[in-house]
């Protein structure tokens, strides 16, 4: 059983040859037809599943799927009657084939009569502007975009081709590349939290006159916030992805392909290299640098620079190995009686 | 003094007999009239207050309320002229009576002329569709619902009777039961954070083709996010309540009556039993199981299964008693001088 | 190079005399004209920069700015040809002058034809109501306000003069002073998380019949949430500023000029004095009191009252000095071998 057709009608059926091509494989029986992807447990004889790792091996042995992407090591566990499609990256193959059956919805070109589009805005060919969307003066929207219901593209913004603003997303003071996605309620280009407090406690706003620059393929999750630069720009590098409810302060810069998981927050002017991973609910203070491929653990509180390819965890954050050792020590101490011996359940 | 009548005009006056019935009590002077509920400090002679616990005992002794819900133990502290309504659950009695004076606003049936409703959407009897709301193709909305201003019900969604979407809430790819509430800006049915990263660092989206299933009486707070399943469903069981700014990842499942407090986050495929409580700003990693009636403390970071009826706190989370012991030990150590003796303020 | 004129066209040019007046300085060559503010690195000969602290001293020595706000101590490092504007508060002077070149956008008076404004709402002179905004029955909006696209002012609300609701902000059950700002997607006046759980696990809503009171100059960040009182009011004192994604529970009260940074959360009925600072991702339990000028560190978890002018950090939060000592001790222990000696990289 594949996806609910009310929401996700599958394309197809699709021939195995096309499926194999998407997955980078070659097959014998290329004309065999498949109707959808599904999980090992739910797939039927015309559907395709996958196994990554070993956790789901029992499900593999009992699957009724017509075919399954597996590693060479797991191929022997594929049951009779199920076609083993052997690949080093089964989940990646699955993702690419799933996208054949369930491509992103194409834009339905045109401007909804309830949308408010500035006369001098430029809307690319084949772009869809949804109900109650608002497009500001001088905005430029590329070809093949979808501007969802009640989404906003502010005055002067540039949005590259193939981009999507989902329902109620807003973009202001922003220059965005191609294939950018803003999920529901994402806020891009807001005023940063910039003010000077006088000796009498009055907060005097520092005008925030920078922009947000989003590289090609940047995706921003639901209800996340990306503040514009105070002066100069906030920059998210190409392919960077933010999950939901993430906070990005003014003048933050990320490199390529960074991943920032739900509810993490990055304070002003922090700089991330390429392929940095910030796990959920982590926080970074401002004006620090995180090296390429560094990884910050969930709920970590990062107060200093992190070298490239380094994992840090904890609040305040330390290198992962030392932190785990410290926590083990603390656990051991907590189990120590007053006479110095240990006892009881630790 | 009760609520500000500009926002909350009280029904009534209401006879004591009806009040007692709502609270599950019997009274003598059933025809006496009351005009509203209020706090012990603010209630006047036609208003009803309550005392739960002992913290507000001084306020009880000085209250000018006409009547007060109290436990048997506190009845002797009710001042002369104030009617003691004795019950084992004073605050619950108060809640039920407050709802007599301040029932949830009823829908004003009809579709606002600025709303955009798909021709094949089915709208139940007595349902209100507010200004600029958007109802997608094939959506089914039950009777007696309120769809607030600028709220969105996506194509194919099902929303049970008596449900409420407040201002700018959005629901997509979702099947919801009766009496469901989405607060302002809540996001349900967003694409989950699902992708595979290739060896060159490219993030390849895994199509997210599952749904969100909301049980009867589920309530979701302002600006909270509930991602749809990657394949299969994200499920919130009947009576589950989410506070504001909560994140629920794809394929999370909760049982009945769970409570998830503000800014908590639950990663993909975690499963909660019935009546689990997740306190504010706590985080759960994916693919773990939390047993019935377990409780997770504020800011806890849960990385492993939690058995039923167990309290855990801390990040990483431990059983509460051990964590508190560890923290006490650490505090003691911090107060230890280099020569091994302790001194100074701990 | 100043700000991108697509988004932030500078006023001006502006004479040095006016600039000096805004900064509280006196100058000789008052007729000299300047065109914008910019950073030390980017400013050109008709632009003004500033130096605060010593970190950017190298940039000062190489700046091409026409003038620079500096402290007396740094004046000797201002390069030849650049005018040194000496002040004790260079960044504050910069902020005030930046606001000359980049004043907040003025309202464009009038009601957009797609806005839905209740017939009995009162709209002040010179106020702008944007596309698809919704103004409820009996609302009162002061003079010179901007109600952005798709923003909502609920029935009965009062909003003081010079206030701004940015795109998709919503305000309900709220009485707000002058110069209040709600950023994109901010939610004010939502129902608080108030319910009683019965012995069978049913959650019974306690009607939330209080309001939100916002003092003059309160600013609330993007996608932040401020719940209304359960009974009585939630109050944010004059000049209090909230960053993005902040959660304020029902009946919280703050004094004047508090600062609450991104993703922090304050539970119900907590009370903050004047000029309290709550750093990012910190959490406060309900019903506690935080004294004037106390400061709560990032990610702290505050479970008890905090005296005035006290800094606390950590979760659970302790006074800052003791917490740092405890962490140092833990780090030292983690580096201790089993035989009691220390060794290896700490």
UniProtKB/TrEMBL annotation, chains A, B, C:
Q: Does the keyword Disulfide bond apply?
A: no
Keywords assigned by UniProt, alphabetized = Acyltransferase, Lipid A biosynthesis, Lipid biosynthesis, Lipid metabolism, Repeat, Transferase
Catalytic activity, reaction form: a UDP-3-O-[(3R)-3-hydroxyacyl]-alpha-D-glucosamine + a (3R)-hydroxyacyl-[ACP] = a UDP-2-N,3-O-bis[(3R)-3-hydroxyacyl]-alpha-D-glucosamine + holo-[ACP] + H(+)
Please give one Gene Ontology molecular function term for this protein: UDP-3-O-[(3R)-3-hydroxyacyl]-glucosamine N-acyltransferase activity
- Coiled coil ranges (UniProt) are none
EC number(s) on record?
2.3.1.191
Q: Where is the UDP-3-O-[3-hydroxymyristoyl] glucosamine N-acyltransferase non-repeat region domain?
A: 35-100
- Active-site positions, per UniProt? 250 (proton acceptor)
Q: In which pathway does it act?
A: Bacterial outer membrane biogenesis; LPS lipid A biosynthesis
Instruction: Please name the HAMAP family in this protein's record.
Output: LpxD
**NCBIfam families associated with the record:** lipid_A_lpxD (TIGR01853), PRK00892.1 (NF002060)
**Assembly with partners or alone:** Homotrimer.
PANTHER family linked to this entry? UDP-3-O-ACYLGLUCOSAMINE N-ACYLTRANSFERASE, UDP-3-O-ACYLGLUCOSAMINE N-ACYLTRANSFERASE 1, MITOCHONDRIAL-RELATED
Write the protein's name: UDP-3-O-acylglucosamine N-acyltransferase
What species does this protein belong to? Neoroseomonas terrae
């Amino acid at each position: 059983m594949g996806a609910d057709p009310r929401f996700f009608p599958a394309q197809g059926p699709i021939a195995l040859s096309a499926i194999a091509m998407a997955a980078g494989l070659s097959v014998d029986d290329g004309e065999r037809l498949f109707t959808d992807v599904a999980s090992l447990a739910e797939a039927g004889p015309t559907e395709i599943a996958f196994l990554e790792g070993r956790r789901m091996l029992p499900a593999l042995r009992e699957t009724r799927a017509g075919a399954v992407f597996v590693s060479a090591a797991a191929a022997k566990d594929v049951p009779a009657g199920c076609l083993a499609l052997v690949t080093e990256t089964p989940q990646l193959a699955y993702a690419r084939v799933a996208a054949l059956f369930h491509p992103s919805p194409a834009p339905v070109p045109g401007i909804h009569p309830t949308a408010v589009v500035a006369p001098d805005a430029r809307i690319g060919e084949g772009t869809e502007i949804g109900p109650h969307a608002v497009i500001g003066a001088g905005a430029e929207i590329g070809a093949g975009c979808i501007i969802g219901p009640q989404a906003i593209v502010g005055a002067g913004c540039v949005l590259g081709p193939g981009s999507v603003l989902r329902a109620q997303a807003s973009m202001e003071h922003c220059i965005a590349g191609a294939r950018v996605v803003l999920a529901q309620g994402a806020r891009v280009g807001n005023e940063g939290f910039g003010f000077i407090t006088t000796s009498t406690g009055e907060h005097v706003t520092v005008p925030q006159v920078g922009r947000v620059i989003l590289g090609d393929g940047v995706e921003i999750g639901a209800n996340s916030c990306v503040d514009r630069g105070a002066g100069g720009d906030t920059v998210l590098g190409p392919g960077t992805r933010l999950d939901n409810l993430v906070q990005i302060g003014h003048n933050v810069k990320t490199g390529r392909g960074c991943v920032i998981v739900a509810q993490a927050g990055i304070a002003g002017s922090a700089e991330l290299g390429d392929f940095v991973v910030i796990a959920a609910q982590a926080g970074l203070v401002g004006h620090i640098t995180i090296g390429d491929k560094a990884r910050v653990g969930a709920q970590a509180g990062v107060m200093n620079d992190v070298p490239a390819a380094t994992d840090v965890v904890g609040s305040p954050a330390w290198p992962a190995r030392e932190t785990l050792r410290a926590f083990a020590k603390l656990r051991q101490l907590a189990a120590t009686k007053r006479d110095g011996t240990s006892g009881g359940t630790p």
